[in-house]
Amino acid sequence: MLKPTSQLELLQSIADGIAALFFPNVEVVIHDLSTNQVAYLANNLSKRKPGDDAGLDDFDINSGTPVTGPYEKLNWDGKKMRSVSIPARDEQGNPSYLLCVNLSTGMFEDARNALDMFLSVTRLQPQPQQLFKDDWQEKINTFLHEWIRLQNTSLSSLSREQKKQLVIDLYNEGAFKAKSAADYIANVLSLGRATVYKYLKELKKGEGAA
């Protein structure tokens, strides 16, 4: 007959699973509320050990809240952590253990800072006017994405009818004056070049009839 799993053993398995899934950025600590000591650590990031004081004097265990947090705290290395605490109760409903999941956000903050630095607009210079005054591709891109925004859709979601209307609107905007514009627009809209020319032919025929 299998031995019943104790509450602590079950919590340890949960702690190990969470730590393994989010390794190396998550630590899981189990506090024994009967002794106010650390009972178990998975992926130790805080340099504590079992038997250390849990430091829960100011924590309201009896509040009845199933989950506390997320809240922020500072680790020994000066890096921030975001944490949630979940009390585990016995059969009488009394809290016996506290499961704390601590996410180290240092790596994410470093990545954000690197992106902020890389994408900083303060390092950009205005486009050289003489070099880009006839940049027909950028003008097409600007009109195209503004059109898509107003239609509340995306480039990949455009229907065939929407693509046809976009070709017409681009034509009316003068987008096809550039030598390679038709090929470029066909490529961007994932249309055959023959299809774009067909739309333009129909459009010009209609203008002639008018």
UniProtKB/TrEMBL annotation:
Transmembrane segments: none annotated. Residues 8-113 form the YheO-like domain. Residues 140-201 form the Transcriptional regulator DauR-like HTH domain. Pfam families: HTH_22, PAS_6. It comes from Serratia inhibens. This is Transcriptional regulator. It comes from the Bacteria.
